[in-house]
């Protein structure tokens, strides 16, 4: 609860090119989770309190209670039911009210001159939606590249932080708008104070002509992805909320300025800045509803719902076209450590393969006499018998269907051997396999029982489809109650 607050304040306060909103959401979630664990609440209530804490954090950071709720639904919760709205709404209202009383802030992005929505400007928003989607993909790829680079860098944590800080310092000296969150830069651009943005950079020696401003801001937009990812993955603490909003606003301003340069008049500059912020955030975080309501609430831009929806959805769809799962979450999803929007997969991720193994299935050595197998059949109640070798490795299985034709034929029994009667199972389950992989193997083979082995082939037991279904049904009842 405390480390996120302290670390993010140090990171952003000293100029780290990241945002405070993600650490605020994590802190709120930690408070909710700790509260639930203190009072020993069940899984569903603990998850809901975790989401409520994050909701309150986002609502207070942006003065946007609805956006806080949308963030919880899109990022944290799955299988949402109507009753979940009540605690989230209470958390959002409380977070927003306390923030207003303590900070006395009304609107985060207050622009002096902003145009009302005009349907004649729809072509601008369509083009901007495509640009936001492509830029969001660029942002994600750069972030992944920088993360992988620092992970493979053979340096201590302190040396990584020093290297990242050195690179970030150079970037901020050359391009001061990269310093910190960048919200002031966005406000300055929309209020016509471009000189203020450029005065501390070396570009001021070139001049303040329109094409110079266009090049300067384009470079800023491209470098923001590097600056924010270096800040976070070299050892800083922050999130992509503010960087994506900054990059989207800058991209919207660059697009508006470009339109003006090629002779198009009456370009809604402020609208494009606001809508661009929502578009890039939607494409980076895969959260279009959060982006739409965040910008609408934090700028009093409710009249811009139509362009906000257009650009956010377009950017989101472009991002989904490149990667169905958010790249920030893909590794955790592949490892089964977090939920996705697939409710079945969410429940199965709560189960462990090792807990469903039945070790009471009879086994027989491949070199044993056939009479020993007959005796096992006489005493056993199962439909399958595991065949192992002297090292207890599984070499095959024998089912009652295999035995039935020869059990009552004495000559056939005398002539039969275990090795000749056994067969390989249609698939093997490794004890480290996820339940999703186990279910997939059951679906592919169409059988009811599959053997479980260790990585070296040693026999462990069997898993039946009925045990998986029974446990799944129990979880379904527990999480839908």
Number of helical segments? 22
CATH fold group of the largest domain: Clc chloride channel
Classify the beta-strand content into a percent band: 5-15%
What integer is the average pLDDT? 83
Radius of gyration: 30 Å
Order of helices and strands: HHHHHHHHHHHHHHHHEHEEHHHEHEEH
CATH architecture of the largest domain: Orthogonal Bundle
CATH homology superfamily name of the largest domain: Clc chloride channel
State the domain count: 2
Which overall shape is indicated by the principal axes computed on the Cα atoms?
elongated
Structural class: mainly alpha
Low-confidence stretches: none
CATH classification, class level of the largest domain: Mainly Alpha
User: Helix content range of the residues, please?
Assistant: 55-70%
Strand ordering within the main sheet: 1-2-3
Total beta-strand segments? 6
How many strands, which pairing sense, and closed or not: the largest β-sheet? 3 strands, mixed
Structure description:
- The structure is a single chain.
- The protein has 22 helices and six strands.
- With 481 residues, it is mainly alpha-helical.
- The chain folds into two domains: 3-341, Orthogonal Bundle (Clc chloride channel); 347-480, Roll (CBS-domain), CATH 3.10.580.
- The strands form two sheets. It has a three-stranded mixed sheet with strand order 1-2-3.
- Helix 2 packs antiparallel against helix 3 (43-62), helix 6 (122-152) packs across helix 14 (305-322) and helix 10 (210-233) packs antiparallel against helix 11 (241-261).
- The longest helix has 31 residues, at 122-152.
- It is elongated and about 100 Å long.
């Amino acid at each position: 609860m405390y480390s996120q607050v302290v670390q993010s304040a140090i990171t952003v306060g000293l100029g780290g090119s990241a945002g405070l909103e993600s650490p605020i959401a994590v802190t709120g979630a930690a408070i909710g989770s700790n509260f639930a664990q203190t009072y020993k609440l069940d899984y569903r209530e603990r998850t809901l309190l975790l989401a409520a804490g994050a909701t309150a954090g986002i609502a207070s950071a942006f003065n946007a209670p609805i956006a806080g709720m949308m963030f919880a639904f899109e990022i944290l919760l799955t299988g949402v039911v109507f009753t979940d709205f009540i605690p989230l709404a209470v958390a959002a209202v409380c977070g927003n009210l306390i923030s207003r009383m303590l900070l006395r802030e009304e609107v985060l992005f207050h622009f002096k001159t902003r145009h009302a929505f005009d349907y004649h400007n729809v072509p601008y928003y369509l083009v901007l939606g495509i640009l936001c989607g492509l830029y969001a993909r660029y942002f994600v790829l750069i972030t992944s590249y920088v993360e992988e680079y620092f992970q493979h860098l053979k340096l201590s944590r302190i040396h990584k932080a020093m290297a990242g800080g050195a690179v970030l310092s150079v970037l901020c000296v050359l391009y001061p708008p990269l310093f910190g969150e960048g919200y002031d830069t966005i406000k300055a651009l929309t209020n016509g104070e471009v000189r203020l943005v450029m005065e501390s950079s070396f570009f001021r020696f070139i001049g303040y002509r329109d094409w110079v401003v266009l090049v300067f801001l384009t470079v800023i937009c491209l470098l923001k992805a590097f600056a924010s990812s270096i800040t976070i993955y070299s050892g800083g603490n922050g999130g992509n909320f503010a960087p994506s909003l900054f990059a989207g606003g800058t991209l919207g301003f660059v697009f508006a300025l470009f339109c003006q340069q090629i002779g198009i008049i009456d370009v809604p500059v402020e609208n494009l800045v606001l809508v661009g912020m929502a578009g890039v955030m939607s494409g980076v975080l895969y959260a279009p509803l959060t982006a739409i309501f965040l910008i609408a609430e934090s700028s009093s831009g409710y009249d811009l719902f139509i362009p906000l929806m257009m650009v956010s959805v377009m950017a989101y769809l472009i991002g989904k076209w490149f990667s169905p799962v958010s790249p920030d979450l893909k590794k955790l999803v592949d490892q089964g450590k977090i939920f996705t929007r697939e409710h079945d997969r969410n429940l199965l991720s709560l189960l462990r393969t090792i807990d469903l193994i039945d070790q009471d299935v009879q086994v027989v050595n491949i070199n044993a006499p056939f009479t020993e197998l007959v005796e096992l059949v006489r005493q056993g109640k199962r439909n399958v018998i595991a065949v192992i070798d002297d090292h207890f490795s599984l070499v095959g299985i024998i089912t009652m269907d295999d035995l039935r034709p020869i059990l009552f034929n004495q000559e056939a029994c005398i002539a039969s051997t275990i090795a000749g009667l056994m067969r390989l199972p249609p698939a093997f389950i490794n004890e480290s396999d996820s339940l999703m992989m186990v279910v997939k193997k059951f679906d592919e083979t169409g059988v009811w029982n599959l053997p479980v082995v260790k990585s070296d082939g040693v026999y462990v037991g069997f898993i039946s489809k009925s045990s998986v279904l029974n446990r799944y049904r129990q979880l379904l009842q527990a999480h839908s109650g």
